[in-house]
From TrEMBL:
Official protein name in the record: Solute carrier family 16 member 8
Organism: Amazona collaria (yellow-billed parrot)
Domain of life where this protein originates: Eukaryota
Molecular-function annotations in GO: monocarboxylic acid transmembrane transporter activity; symporter activity
Keywords: Cell membrane, Membrane, Symport, Transmembrane, Transmembrane helix, Transport
One Gene Ontology cellular component annotation held by this UniProt entry: basolateral plasma membrane
Residue ranges, annotated region (Disordered): 451-543
Biased composition annotated in UniProt, kind: Acidic residues: 469-479
Amino acid sequence: MGRRDPEEGHLPAPAKPPDGGWGWIVLLGCFVITGFSYAFPKAVSVYFKELMKDFHVGYSDTAWISSIMLAMLYGTGPVCSIMVNQFGCRPVMLIGGLLASSGMILASFTTNIIELYLTAGVLTGLGMALNFQPSLIMLGTYFDKRRPLANGLAAAGSPVFLSSLSPLGQVLLEKFGWRGGFLIMGGLLLNCCTCGAVMRPLDTGMKRITEKTRDKYEAKEMLPIGGKSEEGISTTDGTMKAKKAKKKPRKGKKLLDFSIFSNRGFIIYTISKFILVLGLFVPPILLVNYAKDTGVPDTEAAFLLSIIGFIDIFARPACGMVAGLKWVRPHVAYLFSFSMLFNGLTDICSARASNYTGLVIFCVFFGISYGMVGALQFEVLMAIVGSQKFSSAIGLVLLIEAFAVLIGPPSAGRLVDALKNYEVIFYLAGSEVVLSALFLAMATYCCLNRGKKKEGSPEKNPPTGGGSDTEEAESDVQEAEEHSSDNHQPAHSTDNTVVAAREEANHVAEEQGREGGGCPTGDGEVLARDGCDADQTVERDSF
């Protein structure tokens, strides 16, 4: 990613996702990165009691370590987007892995809680953010037809790592103390660099050069035979060189594409996710204390989270498989709405649970619904904005979610302290999740689907990445005509120049159609292929 065509000076056309091959290695790397990003801030909580003793601080002070990690993971989204668009995914992930590892290693030598905030909190959190977002972008680059399944499998890394890192942290704490545990955890985070190293970009660099060479020979064959053919060839080459000199910088990729805010689907998704995050994380955070207050022993109360994690491991890949079905994938936004509705109703119905059996039933259903939400959230975003704008979209969405993360759980904790009643908190959290589900479903139906019916044709996504190859070739036709008329070239040379440029547009459109399976569209003059409607056939000028 981030490579530019040396001959044209702009980004090459995106290659077709392989939906397999090296993509499975990329999926494995994304699985590991997702596991570290979501599970690590929770896993470090096993060290909090020792930190409280050594630094003479309270639980709320040590809890800020996890909060800062999560805030960096969400709040630095736009920064990650800019770096990915500028340098590519692999270099950013390598730097992120080094930062995450060095943060935990430096944290093992700290002498006060503030130094822990800066090292384990800020540095490690930033490193994980620089790994998490690019890994999702690469996953969308390598998978298209199997993307829902790939997202589900990658999302399963969160519960798998949570169920393994927490016991591992307890063992390290008992044998080496918190300083030795932090040092070893820092070494484990170096695996993020390994995951970043396998995120190689798809090879698209030579595609356009090959097409240009082929088009030049075909243009030469179409020119008249005789002494004037050489004149036509030189005229064509001169026109192409003049066209390259006139290339505008608009073809370059933006560091952060704010044009996605003109996409109504993105606006609806962002608002829905903000409301969702306000209540989604509240129940699992308060569950253990809620169980203890109802008289459940400590060990059994802690086991409730393990139940959620175990169910979550299987729910995410299963939901990804369902979302990939042909008759489900076009309506994946509604499936996402259903998963949120399921989760919110689970919170509301379990608010009055007063025994351990009731809490276990709640954990089973919460694990299923929570896994569905986790498997679908990024798949829906990819479907809305496309893979080319996903790097900017996810950065902006995570930034907006960061405010919800800082508002939701802390507010719930204050209400518990004030009301001494967990039942109200579960009702409130469930209502917020249900509201987000209803908003997404109704807004998608009213604002998007009905809008498409009024227009009479399905809404098409605007071109991303500075324009498609077909548009670039069509602009070449116009520039060739302008250049020829400005320099008063002979009539036959002008015609040959325009023909050569139009042939380039035709070949690019044909190649694009073979990969995408559709018909060429646009204002330019392109050839009609088999399977296209008769109205889409565009007349070409005679020689």
